[in-house]
Write a structure and sequence with these properties.
Elements lengths: L7 H15 L2 E3 L3 H32 L1 H6 L4 H16 L5 H18 L3 E3 L3 H31 L10 H17 L3
Antiparallel strand pairs: 1-2
Length: 182
């Protein structure tokens, strides 16, 4: 699952909801500050991946002639370069490891900012956070397909990639998440 900036709020709210529903955690300042702190960590992760992708694109752009000459598989080359750049920048690409690390950073932030209290193992709380992220990811593709299908069958034609499409997509996406209790 790739984290996208448009999903940050949904994921942050899901994490806060899962923590609250677990009854293992209490929020010292309510759920608003928790959602905000989680959002900051998620945005940092999204921005790191964007910067890695931009660097990979820059490198590939510099080697465009060689790529064409050798008829290299661009997707495979992108992945190979991304692995190298990601390692240099500290971006974990393996989904399980990445979300485990992200869950740990989120937990650290919530604890350091005194936004949550708990008396159980940190691993238990970290696993709740990681599970919330993975659960969101599992449903993300399914929900996106449903929303794209709805937009395709809209009464009037809406062109994908336009601002109107993105606004409607976000609205319908939010509605689908609500239907699923996310």
């Amino acid at each position: 699952m790739r984290l996208l900036s448009g999903h940050v709020q949904f994921i942050a709210e899901k994490i806060a909801r899962e923590l609250s529903n677990s009854k293992l955690v209490t929020f010292s300042q309510g759920d608003g500050p928790v959602v905000k702190a989680v959002s900051v960590q998620l945005i940092d992760e999204v921005e790191l991946e964007k910067s890695v992708d931009a660097e990979v694109n820059r490198i590939m752009g510099e080697k465009e002639e060689d790529i064409d000459f050798y008829q290299a598989d661009r997707k495979q080359l992108f992945r190979m370069i991304k692995r190298k750049v990601a390692a240099q920048r500290g971006l974990i690409l393996e989904t399980g490891d990445r979300f485990n690390d992200l869950a740990h950073r989120i937990l650290d932030e919530l604890y350091e900012e005194d936004l949550i209290n708990y008396t159980v193992s940190e691993n238990l709380i970290k696993n709740l956070i990681g599970k919330a992220i993975l659960d969101y990811g599992k449903r993300q593709d399914e929900i996106e397909d449903i929303v794209h299908e709805k937009l395709r069958h809209y009464k009037r034609s809406i062109i994908r990639g336009t601002e109107e499409y993105e606004i409607l997509f976000a609205k319908l996406y939010s509605e689908e998440l609500s239907k699923l209790g996310m």
